[in-house]
Amino acid sequence: MHLPPSSDPARRRPPAHEAVLAAAEVFLRQYAAENPGDGDPRRRLAEVTAEVERCGTYEHTPAELAFGARVAWRNAARCIGRLYWNNLVVRDLRHVTHPDDIAGECFEHLRIATNGGRVRPVVSVFAPDRPGRPAATLLGEQLVRYADDPRSTHRVSLARGLGWKGGETPFEVLPLLVQPGSGLPPVFYEVPEDAVLEVPLTHPYHPGFAGLGLRWYSVPAVSDMSLEIGGVTYPAAPFNGWYMGTEIGSRNLADTDRYNLLPVVAELFGLDTRDERTLWRDRALVELNLAVLHSFGQAGVSMADHHTESQRFLAHVDRERRHGRPVPTDWSWIVPPLSGGATAVFHRYYDPADPDLRPAFVHRTAGAPEGCPYGTPREGI
Predict the structure, then answer these.
(1) Are 336 and 212 contacting, i.e. CB atoms less than 8 angstroms apart?
(2) Do 90 and 82 contact (CB within 8 A), yes or no?
(3) The CA-based dihedral angle spanning residues 19, 24, 30, 32, taken in that order and rounded to the nearest 10 degrees
(4) Which one of 64, 79, 141, 151 is the catalytic residue?
(5) Who's near 104: CB < 8 A, 6+ residues apart?
(6) Region class of 378: left (phi > 0), else alpha (psi between -120 and 50), else beta
(7) What is the CA radius of gyration of the chain?
(8) pLDDT at position 147 over 90
(9) Side-chain half-sphere of 368: how many Cα atoms within 13 Å?
(10) Is residue 284 classed as helix, strand or coil in its secondary structure?
(11) Is residue 370 predicted with pLDDT exceeding 60?
(12) What whole-number distance in Å separates Cα of residue 146 and Cα of residue 157?
């Protein structure tokens, strides 16, 4: 499939237009191949060419947008939960541009995704960038974050600079920050209580664990990545899956630059922390992960364990191979951060990750530390 011939006009197109058309052709070719009954691709290519030459960009159809968002998840080399890529709920909110309305739809995203605890994968796609007119963005890693999380330091400072008065109590939810595309200062919005389902953490065998006062939220909705489809960038496209237990128990609560709770848990369980050879860290890590899985299960909130999800990822690899598609995979992110060698995904090689593969969820800031759709390192399937 090729773009319609256009000799002299094509040579006079600005380079930016040529780049958009090249990306659009690749995407529309893929769309046509995977949706063979959806109209004449040559006619669609001609429409897109004319629109790009006139406006410098083009508008995806609702079907193209939904397909592109789902394939962006399928292409996410750092995500272990891609077996379910085609079940992603795509909310087309390209008409929503005012910060108040964007915030309202983000809160509705959380309600829809929470689904009473049966968490659904959802993406909400807001307006795209247009030539000379950048669209609004969301500031912060996820729609829900806690103010006392060390990763939240910059966002807490920004929110307080805008007039927010909170952030003094443990596990207090940060406000949502919306950056208007006009370049005006960000606007902050308190997250409604009914939009956030939190799970208090308890342990199945140690009643004293509840006394630590720990909890975590149910929906890891990533908000600091752009969705890129066929040469069009959607800078505000928050998306979520559901948590894998290790993302909370082994990373968010255990990492030394996060909540750093392994010494606290070790003390609670009476572990000997005087010598690393007692493996007190490993034992505390298991107890912390057990508490997370137990608590989400008791609360009726969707959560995967790392052994089951490893098997599901291999099922995804097999299914994609049957369709003749590669599965780009970053091994270091797919292998869980607890008992990696005991999981099925550890013992094999995969197709290499391709940073140029599109459609994709892409960080707006180069070198950002998080990159797994669905969340921070290994956060949110």
Answers:
(1) no
(2) no
(3) -150
(4) 79
(5) none
(6) left
(7) 22
(8) yes
(9) 19
(10) helix
(11) no
(12) 13
Distance CA 196, CA 153 (A): 21
Asked whether the beta carbons of 23 and 64 are under 8 A apart, the reply is: no
Clarify whether 55 is annotated catalytic: no
CA distances from 108 to 36, 97, 149, 194, 381 (A): 34, 15, 24, 10, 20
Please tell me the distance from the alpha carbon of residue 50 to that of residue 56, in angstroms, as a whole number.
10
Tell me the average pLDDT across 279-293. Answer: 98
- Specify whether the CB–CB gap between 113 and 225 falls below 8 A: no
pLDDT of residue 123: 98
Average pLDDT, the chain: 93
SS3 category, 233: strand
- Residue whose entry in the numeric block shows the structure tokens 């000997």: 272
Q: Of the listed 85, 164, 242, 333, which one is catalytic? A: 242
- Is residue 228 annotated as part of the catalytic site, yes or no? no
173 three-class SS: strand
Given the residues 82, 91, 312, 358, the one annotated as active site = 82
372 carries an active-site annotation? no
pLDDT value at position 11? 52
Contact 249, 338 (CB under 8 A): yes
184: Cβ contacts below 8 Å, ≥ 6 apart:
none
Among 247, 287, 309, 379, the active-site one is: 247
Residue 29 is which amino acid?
Answer: R
| Alpha helices per DSSP H over the chain | 7-12, 15-34, 41-55, 62-74, 99-114, 153-161, 245-246, 262-268, 280-299, 306-322, 331-334
Backbone angles phi, psi at 122, to 5 degrees: -140, 145
With CA atoms as reference, report the closest residue to 345 among 83, 80, 84, 85.
80
- At residue 173, does pLDDT exceed 60? yes
